[in-house]
Each structure stands twice: as C-alpha cells, then as structure tokens.
From TrEMBL:
It comes from Sorangium cellulosum (Polyangium cellulosum). Its EC number is 3.5.3.4. InterPro entries: Allantoicase, Allantoicase_dom, Galactose-bd-like_sf, OHCU_decarboxylase, OHCU_decarboxylase-2, OHCU_decarboxylase_sf. Residues 24-175, 197-338 form the Allantoicase domain. Pathway: Nitrogen metabolism; (S)-allantoin degradation; (S)-ureidoglycolate from allantoate (aminidohydrolase route): step 1/1. One of its GO terms (molecular function) is allantoicase activity. Keywords: Hydrolase, Purine metabolism. This is Probable allantoicase. Residues 421-430 have a biased composition (Low complexity). Residues 418-442 are annotated as: Disordered.
Amino acid sequence: MAEARGVTGPAFAEALDLASERLGGAVISANDEFFAPKENLLKASKPVFLEHEYTDRGKWMDGWETRRRRTPGFDWCLVRLGLPGILRGVVVDTAFFRGNYPEHCSIEACAARPDARVEELLNPRTHWVEILPRSPLAGDAQNAFAVSCPFRFTHLRLNIYPDGGVARLRVHGDAVPDFRRLDRAGAELDLAAAENGARVLSCSDMFFGVRHNLIMPGRAANMGEGWETRRRRGPGYDWALVALATQGEIHRIEVDTNHFKGNYPDSCMIEGIDAAGRPLSELAGAGDFREIVPQTKLQAHTRHLFEEELRAAGPFTHVRLNIYPDGGVSRLRIFGKATRSGAAEQRLRWLNALTDREAEAELRAACGASSWASQMAAARPFRDEEALHATASQVFARLGPEDWLEAFRAHPRIGETRPQAEAAEASATARRFSSQEQAGMSAAAEETREALARYNRAYDEKFGFIYIVCATGKSADEMLEMLRERIEHTPDEELHIAAEEQRKITEIRLKKLLWGA
C-alpha cells in the first residue's frame, strides 16, 4: 500500500473533528456515489491506495467518488456532524485522487435537529449558510480551509464541481452542546467528555495516539484509540491538559488503560485548577494546580476508579493528567456536577452560538413580539447573564403598542392552554412556560373557573386583547380578583399595565429559557 502525500495540518486541525464517526458523524445522503461510497469520507483511518484493486464499476478508491458528469451542475453529499459545534476549519483530502479530483468545492452548513430527515434538509425552507465559498482544490493533497463563523451547526453539505473524488473530510471545531438538557436538576455528568463540550487543550507528546482520544465516547477498541506518548529516555513525565465541559465539582474519576499492556504508565497523578478565562499560555506553566489524585500506581488493561482517594473536589475548570514516565491511557472520565455559575456560562454560550433564526425562535418563547426577539438575537453575544437581562429590559423599553399586542397574542387566556389567536404558533417551550405559570389554576374551584371565563370575555370585548397577568405564584382566586379590578381601567391605562405584566413575564421566562426550566 502506498502512502498519501499532503501538507502538514493547519493550526485549526488541533481542534476536535466534529464529523468523526466515533462521535456519531455520518454521511447521510449523496446525489451520486457510482465509483466509491460516500461512507468512506468520514473513516477514521488514513486513505490508502491499492494499485491493482478494481470493482465491477472501475478502479477501487478509498473515498467518495462520483461518475463523470455530462450535464451542467455539480455533485453533493450531506454530512450529519457527530457533535453540534462552532467550526474552525475543514480539510478536504483528495489523497490518491490525481486525474479524477474535483476542480473546486464549496461547503454549506445548517442547524437542524440531529435526527432531521434528508427530505427536511433538502427542503427549500431549510436555511443553509455558506461557510466556504467555491474554492479550488489540488489533487492528492490535504486542502485546508479556515472557517470563520460564530454559529453552531449540526449538518454540512459538501459540494464538488463538477464531479470527482474526495478521500476524506475532516471538520474541526469546538463542540457546543445544549447544556440545558445536559444539566437538568444538577445531574451528574462526565465533565471530561467530548460530547459534553470538554477539550484536550494540549499535551507533552502524542507520538503514537492523539490526545483527543482521551475524551472520546465509549471504551477504546484498540491501542490506536487511546493517547500514547513516545518512550521517554530522560527524566520527567508526560501530561495532558483538559478543559472541562464547565466549571464543576468532581465526585469520582476513572483512568482507563484498556489495551495498554506492555506500554501503560507506571503511575499517574491528577491535578486541577479553577482558571476560567485564563489563556492556555498561562495554564501550561501555572503553579496553582491543586492535587486531586495523588501519584498512584497503574495496572495494564484496567479501569482505575478513584473516589475516596480524591484530595480536592473543586470547583475546577481544568484538570491535568500526569503519567510517569510515559505510555498510553485510553480514556479519562471526570464525573461531577456543574456549578451554578459554570452551567450558566455554558447555557449562555449555547444561546450565543445559535443561528439568528434559531435564536429568534428560542427567544420568542420568552416574549412573542418578533421585534423584541430579532433585536435580542442581533445583540448577541452576551457577556454574562447580567448583560442578557439588561439588554432584554432595554429592548423591551423600545417596544410600542403594536409589539405589545403581538406579544399578548402569543399567550393563552388564563384558564386555557392555546394561544388566543389562531395565527400565534406558540413553541413547545412557550406552551410549557404557560402551563407552569398557570399552575395555580389546577386547584381552582369550578365557580372560579366559570367567573374567569366570563370576565375574560368581558375584558376581551372592552379592550380588544386578552387579560395578561404575570401568573407565576398566583392562585386562580388572586388572578380573578386582579381581573375584576383591572377591567375598570380605561383602554390606555390597561394597555400599559398589561405591557408591564408582559415585561415581568419576559424576565421570568428568559431565566427559564437559560436554565431549562
């Protein structure tokens, strides 16, 4: 087997490959794969060339290859990323494609449900963002392209012009999970898992196995799926620095030497630091790491569990795994719980990374006024929760009566579950919020329900909009009493009172949106 030629990887290739099959990435559709199947694109192994290997369709190639195009157009394939995230760069590898590589390529990205069907992705209503304009390709080379886009994507479309073959596609970036779902009710999670947003920032050496393997899902299938350093011939030790998914308190740790039998480390030590916001250049030589697990002997091909041995729980944002003197470790698991501030930071990171359309849709669950949602989406990124809520108040203060009325229409009447206007399509999140806010109705007497229905109709007839009240924490009787008082107001007075109630609702819902309530 010959070896592929190509250039040394760019800086962005240090980031995780979000399209990796090991993370769940898949090529889910292609318009053509006559000579070589689309699934080859994401194979973890390097491309190979078998000089005398043929199929009944032609030369066997380790990649995705389409037939020769005889009509105008181009070929394409759809890729579902293993982890949603912000992209930093792509490598379009045309290894061994010399007289049959595409002249150009372009790449688009979209944000969709992970289980979105191909038909949905190809629907004209799906919003695709061009992250790489049509660019020339070289044959038998790793064509590296940096990507500069702040949004979180789930799927890619690789377009090749006009046809040809691509051996591998690598999509490097930073995973951005929806932390609202990861951290429900403060559940324990693996703070060092790639799928939760952890990153292996750097290491002393990775001659035999790359550092990212430490935080991959599942157990390693072989030594090649672990982190392994070269043999150390002098004093010292090797290390890997992991940025945890979020600031967290550590409960237990697992160091797995699966498959490492004659090359496992003699011992290991784990240290931690709370260093939110500090650059990598400072962390590499920082002297304020605290010992979490003391230097401990390791065994071959074994899962080592540390719980009672922990000398410090945190909070930590980074951990450093030191191995003595060298060797291989297949996985590092750091189980614990996110701190409140850490979880808030990750939830805000998720909100900041949504596309404008996604952000507007999410924000409309807090306030149904489209102007408010679009202005909030445009104001991102928010530095912290305080900035988020301050901006929300400022934007709401700029709204007018038409915006208020639009927001009102997104609410159900008190005692009902559907928005009062057929045109108001409330999201599942907004409906959940309404149900939570009207929890006081569950214990309401029948006569109270009937009275609310009568007064709701009278209120609608007098003012032309529904009765809006910040219902959180209020009983049905309290809401009925407030309704009886407010129905006596003039239309102008009541419109402004209702707008103030909407502002309160917006503030509460924005907190729920961020915290996954």
